[in-house]
Structures are given as structure tokens and as C-alpha cells.
Amino acid sequence: MGLLRGFFAPFRGGVFVARHRLWAYLVLPVLLDLALGGTAIYLVQRWLRHEDWLASLIGSQPVIGWLVLIGLTSVGAAVVFLVAQPLLLAVFSDRLSEKVEKQARGSAPTAALLPSIARALGHGLLKLVLYGLAVFAGALVSGFLSPVIGTFVGVGIASIFLAYDGFDYPLSRRGASFGRKWAYLAGHPLQTMAFGLGATLLYLVPLAFFVAPPFVAAGATLAFLESEPTQNPVRNAPDLAGNG
Fold first, then answer.
1. Residue 242: strand pairing partners
2. How far apart are the C-alpha atoms of 141 and 113, rounded to whole Å?
3. What is d(CA 241, CA 78) in angstroms, rounded to the nearest whole number?
4. 8 A C-beta contact, residue 48 and residue 73
5. How many Å from the N-terminal Cα to the C-terminal Cα in the chain?
6. Dihedral of alpha carbons 118, 124, 125, 127, sign
7. 83-139 per-position pLDDT tens digit
8. Could you tell me the residue ranges of all domains in the chain?
């Protein structure tokens, strides 16, 4: 049950948004996505064009040089976009997640503004540290074992962190510590891995990445409510990283 619930949750989030006509929660995120994409492309290509080797290549072999510039700009801008997008849209995804919970359950817990902002910043920094360590471990696997194995490890790591980003919203509203958020994910391993895989596939749908974070947040909220119908995960789950 957890496997299917997790895998289809990101797509169910999109269906829920459409069925309940929550499009107003997507308008500004889409506009911000367009601005972010344009800014990322501009900054990356500007930085690349100041690289001496690329400028020399464009001067000596214009066709090849411009193809290299376009390719590197596309890859670089995509990386910048994927890293910055969740941070830029976090507040909108949180509002949508709360709205989804109210629609589905009739009410949703709320947290004090300043403490929740402080907690979000602290947990965000801790997540970046963990992500950096995970990426480093994946690079070691790729270098010492096999690039193919390293690729699978990389996809797995990205999927887990996509799951964390999605379930972070309902858990944060319940005051979950950083450790207890991971404890919830560890306590639902099939749901976590399947959700991450479903979210990854959603991001790969053409143009879907513009609305993927809100859909992922909505889907994670629905899956969370179904996986914890009565229990309080903040109270019952072990804390894997202290009380912070």
C-alpha cells in the first residue's frame, strides 16, 4: 500500500489541485519559475562567455564554439534552476500544502511565524550539509566502483531528498525536529522511495517542472494524511538527530 501510495502521490497532488480549482496557488510560482529560468540562462551564459578557452574556441571554430556554449548553458542553467527552485517556491508550496490539508481533513495545524522561519532555515542548512555529503558519497561510488552504479546511487539520493522536501511541509506544521522528519521517512521506507521516484518522473515530464514543486507538496500532504490518520509522528517517532 505504501509503495503505490508513495509513487502516485505527486501525480495525485496535481489531480487534487485541478479538482479543487487551486490554480491561484500556482500563478505566482509559475511566473517566478519563468523569471528564475531566464535569469539562470542569462547568468550562466554570461559567465561562460568570459571563459578564455571558450572565447578562443568561438573565435577559431564558431559553429562548434556556439554549440558548446549552448550545451553548457543548458546544463548549467538546469542545475541552477533545480537547486534554486525549491527554495524560491517554498513559501508557496507550504501555503498550498496547508490548503490541501484543510480541504482533505477540514483543519490543519499552524505554527508561529518566527519560530517556523527559524526552524525552516536551520533545517534547510542541515539538509544542504547532508545532501553535500550524500553527493560526495555518490561520487566516490562512481569513481571507485562504476559510473553506472554511481548513476543509480545519484538518482536514489535525489529521490530521497525530493521525498524529504515534499513531506517537510506537513511535518513542519506539526513542529517536527530535523531528526523526526527523517525518522518519519525511515519509518515508511517503501512510501519514501516510491514517492521520490514518482516525483523524479514528474520532473521529467516536459514543462511539468514549472509546477512540480507545488504538485509534490500537495501529493506529499495527501500521502502523509493517509499514512498517519490518527498518530502524531512528532510525538511517536524516534528523534534521529536530537531535538533541534
1. 240
2. 41
3. 32
4. yes
5. 31
6. positive
7. 788 778 888 888 899 999 999 988 888 776 666 667 777 777 777 777 777 767 767
8. 2-243
